[in-house]
Automatic annotation (TrEMBL):
Any GO MF annotation of the entry: 4-hydroxy-tetrahydrodipicolinate synthase activity
EC number: 4.3.3.7
Family designation: Belongs to the DapA family.
Positions with a binding annotation for pyruvate: 56, 212
Gene transcribed to yield this protein: dapA
Protein name: 4-hydroxy-tetrahydrodipicolinate synthase
Pathway participation: Amino-acid biosynthesis; L-lysine biosynthesis via DAP pathway; (S)-tetrahydrodipicolinate from L-aspartate: step 3/4
Reactions catalysed according to its record: L-aspartate 4-semialdehyde + pyruvate = (2S,4S)-4-hydroxy-2,3,4,5-tetrahydrodipicolinate + H2O + H(+)
Function: Catalyzes the condensation of (S)-aspartate-beta-semialdehyde [(S)-ASA] and pyruvate to 4-hydroxy-tetrahydrodipicolinate (HTPA).
């Protein structure tokens, strides 16, 4: 990312971040041992940051205590090998502040703050919400712009104003507004992270800091290699890797099932920590699982050829 003074600051949380699932036991309890094993695998295969307790981490159905326990357990495992960002966003400013302070005590490096959902606050109220959260702790904020889920966009002009706050440092971008994203990139020092796996290379090419990837739960090396290729000047190689991932991205993210469900289906088939999803989510059916594994195995064959 190029800043307004022409320098290129290091990404605040790394480049290849995984939106990690939250493993559960077969009985539906939090599986901290599984979370530690999965986190270690992701970091050892190229993820230099993990996002815990986000959408993919089933944050709507985990308790505050479970969220803190997950951060502590993963921090114990990864140490300083990776940045930890944890989701704290709710539709209640007071609750979001409580979770932010809890995250700081648990050892997070930053917090992911989604736009308050359902109440759909106007932009001035939204700006105050984010500022109050930023003022509540010493942790840097990643603003999560995903209007398809929340019902409210963080408008580019709002982001530009918020960028002046010293602890508002990054954006997880699921806005599907490529022009608006470039506008903010050109006028601020905000570190942008592609939150949609089909946009990883496109956003990186125009100055993003990296990605927060759901498919990285199952192909962490591939996502890291894509970014590494681009950084090394091999833009054709990076484009090839993005294209190779398209069938899996489509199967996991665009086939009608939430990414949490599809990621856990693939991880389970690979005998990796996952467990069930919590209601109201339901596990992937047989046909969906078969399609997911076909897409995964096709990409794995590419990986074997390029190893």
């Amino acid at each position: 990312m190029t800043s307004t003074d022409g320098t290129s600051p290091a990404p605040p949380f790394g480049r290849a971040l995984c939106a990690m699932i939250t493993p559960f036991t077969e009985a539906g309890a939090l599986d901290l041992d599984g979370a530690q094993r999965l986190a270690d695998r992701l970091v050892s295969r190229g993820c230099d940051g993990l996002v815990l307790n986000g959408t993919t981490g089933e944050s709507p159905t985990t308790s505050d205590a479970e969220k803190a326990a997950l951060v502590r357990a993963v921090r114990e495992t990864v140490g300083d090998r990776a940045s930890l960002v944890t989701g704290v966003g709710t539709s209640d400013t007071r609750h979001t502040i409580e979770l932010t302070r809890q995250a700081e005590r648990a050892g997070a490096d930053g917090v992911l703050v989604v736009t308050p959902y359902y109440s759909r606050p106007p932009q001035d109220a939204l700006e105050v919400h984010f500022r109050e959260v930023a003022d509540a702790s010493g942790l840097p904020l990643v603003l999560y712009d995903i209007p398809a889920r929340t019902g409210t966009r963080i408008e580019p002009e709002t982001l530009i104003r918020l960028a002046a706050h010293p602890r508002v440092v990054a954006v997880k971008d699921c806005s599907y507004d490529f022009l608006g994203t470039q506008k903010v990139l050109s006028r601020t020092d905000l570190a942008y992270y592609a939150g949609c796996d089909e946009h990883v290379l496109a956003l990186y090419a125009v100055g993003a800091a990296g990605c927060v990837s759901t498919v990285a739960n199952v192909i962490p090396r591939h996502i890291r290699a894509l970014l590494d290729d681009f950084d090394a000047g091999d833009t054709a190689g990076a484009a090839r890797r993005q294209q190779q991932a398209v069938p899996l991205v489509e199967a996991m993210m665009c086939a009608g099932l939430p990414g949490t469900v599809t990621a856990k289906a693939v991880l389970s088939a690979l005998d990796l920590p996952s467990g069930p999803v919590r209601p109201p989510l339901r596990p992937a059916g047989r046909e969906a699982r078969d399609g997911l594994m076909r897409a995964y195995e096709e990409l794995a064959a590419y990986e074997e050829l390029s190893a």
